[in-house]
Amino acid sequence: MNRSAKFTIWDITMLCMGIISAVAGALLVAAWFWEMPIVSFFSQIVLLAFLPVVIIYVWTEKVVAWMNIDSKVLDAIALVLRILAIIMFILFAGSRILSMCRDIPYAATSNYYQVQGKPMRVATNSGARSKLYVAVNGIRFNVGAKTLEKINRNTSYNITYLPHSKYVISIRQDNRVAFAQGQ
User: Fold this and answer.
1) Average pLDDT in the 44-59 region?
2) Which of 28, 46, 103, 117 could form a disulfide with 137 if both were Cys (CB 3.0 to 4.6 A apart)?
3) How many Cα atoms are found within 13 Å in the side-chain-facing hemisphere of 94?
4) Which residues contact 129 (CB under 8 A, 6 or more apart)?
5) What is the spatial distance between Cα 96 and Cα 25, in angstroms, rounded to a whole number?
6) Is the pLDDT of residue 127 over 80?
């Protein structure tokens, strides 16, 4: 059998995005392990932007290959499905991605916002769709389960965060780092 490899610009783009997503995923794990919130922040932006596109592309490509039909109509349908899936992703996750992208200049220049006070609300709802957050001075911060366990409602904290996404850089108590995001 003589199979000639046919690569399109889409294939090369998806390969590059896949490699970048894999590196971003590895950096995200390292950032959580070694408590590097800025690396974690940038890794999340890359993963939110690239990974769904790569997954959608690979999935539709596999479906087309599985059907084993060489048809321009089928290729057009796959392209339309890809575009619709990407639009749906942007509609559902777009506000999160946009707020994180708006915070890039703040993160790059270490221009963080701070708020100090006692947590007014701490959500510890259980269930599949529970949101874990802490509210200090009317600002709501999404936090992980381990971070939430360490929060004491009677203690004053100084929270360093990015302004648009409310991404927590650190939580300090008495001028010492109590814990960073992702713990």
Assistant:
1) 82
2) 117
3) 8
4) none
5) 18
6) no
pLDDT for the residue numbered 2: 44
Residue 183 has pLDDT above 50, yes or no: no
Contact at 8 Å (CB) between 56 and 65? no
Q: Flag the least confident range among 33-42, 143-152, 164-173.
A: 143-152
SS3 (DSSP) at 180: strand
- Given the structure tokens 């339309």, which residue do they identify? 80
Q: Is the distance from CB of 116 to CB of 157 less than 8 angstroms?
A: yes
Exposed (0-12), middle (13-18) or buried (19+): which is 105, by Cβ within 10 Å?
Answer: exposed
Instruction: Give per-residue pLDDT as tens, 152-179.
Output: 888 889 999 999 999 999 888 865 655 5
Element at 147 (helix H, strand E): helix 145-150
The beta-carbon contacts of 67-70 under 8 Å, at least 24 apart in sequence, are none
Cα–Cα distance measured from residue 15 to residue 9, given in angstroms and rounded to the nearest whole number: 10
